[in-house]
Design a protein that fits this description.
heterodimer; A: mainly alpha; 2 domains; about 0% strand; disordered C terminus; B: about 190 residues; 9 helices
Chain lengths: ~120, ~190
């Protein structure tokens, strides 16, 4: 029980007795029983909210494994879009010699990488 | 591996709700429906409103299931939501004109099922008077003091939990509770 005086738990001062009496008065304030339809109303409310804000469950289930794949596909598409020949690119148009040189280097690198990936015949 | 085994039972249930187990939500509802409704009833002193607010509390719990993290005791988190909902309701009802008063509720014939007592008419009248005074004394407390007293007295939360609910230190809670109980003692001192 709350008491501003410092003493051990086994000691009861006048303040302790005063606050104990308050606590006893507060026991008069009983709360009523929860009404029988409480849970049903709650679940109905949850169902309404779920129906309003979320996708149908079968679509949610279908989308779950597809979402990361879709994100990866979007990134790959973006990369290809930026590097596909014929795509308007101001930098390439400004200095075609430099862009050709970059492409050659990229191809050379790709060939080197391919060599590394080719299994060694034993 | 997450130390699920070390978590309290309620937190474990809530983690299962996070994983999509609605049965666990039902178990949490079973365990905490009464305390939440009782707390809200004593805060707003209107049975219909308290149940509506309690539904809002559990709806928020369910809504937060996917992002739930057991950073505090489940009851601390639950009562933080309940206190927030109650304080908003008290503030909103103060702004409204002509909201239902205690007297109106006690006279409107709403059946309040309290603990079964075999009382004489005179005893019943005395009980009603005492009850009215206690309710008025609690209603007169500032909202945060009221919440702290109700959690401490009726719901058995300790100082650390109440501090977590009200986002303040334990020493601030002790001070808050002391002032609240002092105010109640002054108002109820005449009661035998």
């Amino acid at each position: 029980m709350i008491c501003p005086n410092e003493h051990g738990p086994d000691v009861e001062c006048a303040e302790c007795r005063g606050f104990a009496a308050v606590s006893e008065r507060l026991d008069e304030f009983a709360a009523p029983e929860v009404s029988p339809g409480f849970d049903a109303r709650l679940y109905a409310r949850i169902a309404r909210e779920e129906a309003r804000v979320s996708l149908p469950s079968w679509r949610r289930w279908l989308w779950r494994p597809v979402a990361p794949l879709a994100a990866a596909a979007a990134v790959i598409a973006l990369v290809l879009f930026l590097h596909v020949p014929g795509t308007p690119d101001a930098a390439k148009q400004a200095s075609p010699t430099q862009s050709n040189k970059a492409e050659i280097e990229q191809v050379a690198q790709a060939v080197d990488d391919l060599d590394l990936l080719t299994p060694i015949d034993r | 591996m997450e130390a699920v085994a070390g978590l309290e039972r309620d937190a474990q249930l809530m983690l299962r709700v996070r994983e999509g187990d609605d049965t666990s939500f039902g178990l949490l509802l079973e365990r905490h429906r009464g305390p939440v409704v009782n707390f809200l009833y004593r805060m707003v002193q209107n049975q219909a409103v308290s149940e509506e607010l309690a539904q809002e509390v559990f709806l928020r719990v369910y809504r937060s299931r996917e992002t739930y993290e057991p950073t505090a005791k489940f009851t601390t988190w639950l009562f933080r939501i309940a206190t927030h909902v109650a304080l908003n309701s008290i503030r909103d009802r103060k702004k409204e004109k002509g909201h239902e008063s205690l007297d109106e509720e006690m006279l409107d014939g709403t059946e309040r099922q309290v603990a079964d007592r075999q009382l004489t008419v005179e005893q019943e009248m005395v009980h009603e008077v005492k009850l009215r005074e206690v309710r008025q004394a609690i209603e007169a407390l500032p909202a945060k003091q009221r919440a702290a007293v109700l959690m401490h007295k009726y719901e058995g939360l300790d100082y650390a939990q109440i501090a977590g609910v009200l986002s303040c230190s334990e020493s601030a809670i002790k001070s808050l509770l002391f002032r609240a109980y002092e105010a109640l003692r002054d108002r109820l001192a005449h009661m035998a």
